[in-house]
Design goal:
With about 400 residues, this protein is mainly alpha-helical. It has 21 helices and 2 strands. The longest helix is centred in the C-terminal third of the chain and has 31 residues.
Length: about 400
């Protein structure tokens, strides 16, 4: 009987708190959204699973290793503990994913129409406005954020999951779980969030604008561009070099044509393996004590505001450029300046087709979409320069 009572008292059910129950439900919801709704399944499914595992009482998935006073290890840590500290706290996993994204990216649309770079830059306004919003919330006493935390939250506006995770791991690791969930959730909701904003800021005639066919881009241009952009940005802003460097390295492998095996591995096997561990590691930070608080609610609200402002800024920049340009730009592609690649570009194309069923904007929208990736990496470098340790 005593053994039975001991077994019951040591079970997960006996030690399960209301907060842990709530977070397990959150994990199940993330898995549901990944499987049933198809919302960023590559990340939301492992994040959801990691959330469930870390909130199971007495399981020890995130237990830290124990050492005696002489430094001898008495017990090993949990799996999620090592995944997080080896791959995310160090920033390794996000950087490897950025390399994979670079290997899958075609700079052709951006090089064929370089002025779309301004659309990608304009869409980053949401990042800096959100930083100010977080500071304002702190000043009003509603929620308290440090400057570093405000900077990490603001990066959500770039709609770039790996960048958000990388910056959070460097500036605000205690908020990493909430920031990652907000970033990937809003990326998944691009088809729902962006169209109302795009339509509200454009007229029917603007949405019908047909853009001229893009010029062919040579292989030499595609090889030189990542090297040139890396050199320029890294020399002016060294803190942006890790993200942009891995991105450009991945792209160079793709475009060089001499390391097809490496490029293929980077685009497929490597990025898939790292994505699994990245998701589990992010989920490990969604424990009840670190997620269920006012700061998390503030992050979710600020993240949505950042995303909306970034979308609106890109559209408004396109409208402004039309005032001074002979070749008109369809303002819808400005919304693709947020770096949710390639979903934001697909949304621009979809809304354009609704206005004119002969208006194919996908390749035009990929220009600002790719520029948004570069812009978010530069914005991240600015944040690290100002608020990093």
């Amino acid at each position: 009987m005593e053994n039975l009572l001991l077994l019951v008292n040591n079970s997960g059910f006996a030690n399960l708190t209301p907060g842990q129950t709530g977070m397990i439900i959150v994990g199940l919801v993330l898995i549901f959204l990944a499987i049933r709704k198809g919302f960023e399944p590559l990340l939301l499914l492992p994040i959801g699973m990691g959330t469930i595992l870390v909130n199971i009482p007495e399981a020890g998935f995130y237990a830290a290793p124990i050492y005696d006073e002489l430094g001898h290890q008495l017990s090993s840590g949990g799996l999620l503990y090592y995944i997080f500290h080896i791959g995310i706290e160090t920033g390794v996993f996000p950087l490897i994913i950025f390399m994979g994204v670079g290997a899958m990216t075609d700079f052709g649309p951006l090089l064929a129409n370089p002025k779309t770079l301004f659309l990608g830059a304009a869409a980053q306004v949401g990042i800096f406005v959100t930083v100010l919003g977080a500071i304002l919330l702190t000043d009003t006493g509603i929620v308290t954020y440090t400057l570093a935390q405000a900077a990490a939250i603001g990066i959500i506006g770039g709609a770039d999951g790996p960048t958000s995770i990388y910056i959070a791991s460097q500036l605000a690791p205690e908020l990493l779980g909430a920031i990652a969930v907000a970033a990937y959730s809003y990326m998944a909701l691009v088809p729902m969030i962006q169209p109302p904003i795009m339509k509200a800021l454009t007229t029917e005639e603007e949405r019908k604008i047909v853009m001229t066919q893009l010029r062919p881009v040579s292989k030499t241009e595609k090889i030189v561009f990542p090297l040139l952009i890396l050199m320029l940005v890294a020399l002016f802003l060294p803190s942006a070099a890790p993200l942009l460097g891995m991105f450009c390295f991945g792209n160079l492998m793709r475009e060089s044509g001499v390391v097809d095996r490496l490029s293929d591995t980077t685009q497929n096997a490597l990025i898939n393996i790292v994505t699994i561990f990245l998701g589990l590691g992010v989920g490990s930070k969604l424990s009840a004590e670190s997620f269920l608080n006012a700061q998390t609610l503030g992050i979710l609200i600020l993240g949505l505001v950042a995303f909306a402002i970034g979308t609106a800024s890109g559209v408004l920049m396109a409208k402004f450029m039309n005032l001074i340009s002979k070749n008109k730009i369809n303002p819808l592609i400005g919304s693709a300046g947020v770096s949710a690649v390639p979903m934001a570009a697909r949304v621009s194309n979809k809304v354009g087709l609704e206005a004119n069923n002969q208006n194919f904007l996908l390749m035009h929208a990929m220009g600002p979409n790719v520029a948004g990736v570069i812009g978010s990496a530069v914005a991240a470098g600015v944040m690290l320069s100002y608020f990093g340790a």
